[in-house]
Amino acid sequence: MSQLKQIHAHTLRATSTTNPHTLFLHSRILHFSSLADINYAFRVFNQIENPNSFMWNTLLRACARSSQREGQAMLLYCRMLAEGVAMPDQYTFPFVLRACAYLFALSEGKQAHANAVKLGFDSDVYINNSLIHLYASCGRLELAKKVFEKMRERSVVSWNVMIDSFVRAGEFETALKLFGEMQKKFEPDGYTMQSIINACAGLGALYFGMWAHAYVLRKCDGGLANDVLINSSLIDMYCKCGFLEIAQQVFDRMPKRDVTTWNYMILGFAMHGQAEAALKYFERLVKKETFAPNSITFVGVLSACNHRGMVNEGRKFFDVMVNKYRIEPRLEHYGCLADLLARAGFIDEALNLVTTMPMKPDIVIWRSLLDACSKQHASVELSEEVARQILESTGGRGGVSSGVYVLLSRVYASASRWNDVGSIRKLMTDDGVAKEPGCSLIEIDGVTHEFFAGDTSHPHSREIYRVLDVVKERLERIAIAFGLLSLNPGVPVSIFKNLRICNDCHKVTKLISKILNVEIIMRDRARFHHFRDGICSCMDCW
Fold it and tell me: Which pTM was predicted?
């Protein structure tokens, strides 16, 4: 910058403002200063009479790419329109739309979109890519899809942005379907594959995820095999598909890792109930890396403590997070600690934590406390108070899920208050609340099969129920039976459930693993359970 300032000073002394080359010199100075010192770039810009579109775009780009000046980019665009000397061109709008996306400024983004159409840029690929990103970032996926479908010409980036938008919105199957269409026209690149791996993680689609991993190793640029972002996504995918050992192999082979990599590995150990390994990797992170753990790291650490009932360790790490690393606890941290305390029987301490934390508890925290009250046989009065808090959090009975009614019903049943149990059931009927149906999924040879309680719709239903004669007719046992029927001996049976596993099913699955000598990996709403030789990885703490 010191040399650039000397050149700038010499330009001011030695050139005339009427010289046609002076404007070009100023545009170069503006360009280089915008990369190094944006405040100086603004001073240069304000001294230029009648800046052209390139100069406006140079400053717009610098603001849009800065993490603190996106608002300035929008103001600069408005100033450009107001002065009316230089008109926005096809390079202007991607920068403006990027700033709008970062600020979730949907209304301003729509105005920029309208202006681009008026100026005849509605077919520009770069502008349309930016529009897809804008609308998806603002939660308007239908508008993003509309822009994408209207594009007469698409680039790899167009497909990548649309696929990534579906993944971020949780529409994983749609993302994979769109990926299939993309492959007919373009070779996927690293950005594509990262989105696809994330989609497989969301679906628990192991076979597709392994194919994506193999594709990266075989066909993509050699550097991608060691790419931190892709390998971090692979770790997350294998953890969420139940294959923790493969996730560890990916982690161990990485030449370089960032904090996200460590977070995925720690969270993976936590969700699989391997608390000791999670805490060991946390210690490795602290000792080995130059960067510090962040807020998400401690979500993983506290989750690990929660899944194994490690109360003292949970209290200790919460304190370390706050006092050593100066990380302000978020709702997730309070939720992990409150759930840990309540499930261990420290319900009063958990309630005190929840009622004194600086933010309002959400329904997830209150539900976990009600669940703990049910399992710990807390007083009916306390359980009713927690249920009342849930009602207040959801704005009345209309927003309460069936799970809350079921938990409160259990509390009344354990206290032999059968009239109140009947009242809860009547409330459910009056409010039109049906118990959420349990659903189990199992992937066989890349195809996902879905089962509900008492399901007879599957084409192999007759054979499945023959196997069920051994293990009786219950929800996840239908999926287990299909796995036993379809998989080769020695291959683990992987089950994905939409609800938390109940005590009865947990006991039966342990027995099945022992009697039939099969490993069963079950992912429920909260975590993974690995059943082997009659023992579960959660050590009966879930």
Answer: 0.78
